[in-house]
Design brief:
The protein has one helix and 13 strands, in the order ββββββββαβββββ. The chain is an all-beta fold. The N and C termini lie far apart (48 Å). The relative contact order is 0.12.
Length: 260
């Protein structure tokens, strides 16, 4: 297999032939069948033309901005910088480096992708020095036990994906310090399953509530400063969702089911 890059600028400048008939998995490279004599192949960058005419009209797709976020707070291996790798950048290493500007262990990067495309990706750090090992049975992965990657169908508009934990489809579960357990357990989220409304109540003041879908997208983010909240779920699709709630700076997560 082989491919071309636009100059000596690394895998970030690799041609994109994803979805074209000459692309071969897993990295959308080209493939050369056996030849038995001197052969000249006149390629066209980014197309499947092999006769040098470059007749295929390549219309640059209109990209939309997708922001990826990963929580590295529970990563035990030492690292310097997290990074995003996927089919859209040729698994290039650190060409889509992530940043943690506010130092909260949540790293993010925004990339331009084509609406409707299905992409695979995963998080790594320091040019593949470490990488997350995902569960092939998890709902956000491709199910491949050998190359277990995350999967995303690119939406039609700019999207900020919800924060997920390293090697997980869900937000990181914060283990509260001693003495906090009883207070956190006083939160009630009911009914579960729900089909119209979801009640969230606590004996303490809830500072914030966030709702995530199974791939980590933020469905709702609400600052409360209240001990009770009624969440309208009538417009949500039937599925599993995750509720993050904050009490006195401690974040916990509960799973709910919506049946509509």
């Amino acid at each position: 297999d082989y491919t071309f890059t636009n100059g000596n600028s690394g895998w970030g400048a690799k041609e994109n032939i994803s979805g074209l008939p000459c692309a071969v998995p897993p990295y959308d490279d080209r493939n050369l069948a056996p030849v038995y004599s001197d052969t000249t192949i006149q390629h066209c960058f980014g197309t499947c033309d092999y006769d040098g005419t470059c007749n295929s009209v390549v219309t640059p797709p209109t990209g939309i901005n997708i922001t990826f976020q990963v929580d590295m707070s529970q990563v035990t291996d030492p690292f310097t910088a997290a990074e995003l790798n996927g089919t859209f950048n040729g698994w290039c290493g650190n060409c889509d480096a992530m940043s943690d500007v506010d130092g909260d262990s949540v790293w993010d990067v925004t990339v331009s992708l084509t609406p409707g495309d299905t992409v695979e990706y995963k998080y790594s750090a320091d040019s593949w020095a470490i990488q997350e090992m995902n569960d092939p049975g998890a709902p956000c992965t491709n199910g491949d036990s050998t190359y277990t990657n995350r999967v995303l169908v690119i939406p039609a508009s700019d999207t900020i994906l919800g924060v997920v934990c390293w090697a997980s489809c869900d937000p990181c579960v914060v283990v509260p310090p001693t003495g906090i357990n009883d207070r956190i357990d006083n939160v009630r989220i009911y009914p579960n399953p729900a089909n119209n409304i979801l009640n969230i109540s606590s004996s303490e003041i809830i500072q914030k509530v966030e709702v995530f879908d199974v791939v980590g997208r933020v469905i709702l983010s609400k600052t409360l400063n209240s001990s009770n909240y009624i969440l309208d779920v009538s417009n949500l699709n039937s599925n599993v969702y995750f509720i993050n709630y904050s009490i006195n700076g401690v974040v916990n997560t509960k799973k709910v089911i919506v049946n509509n």
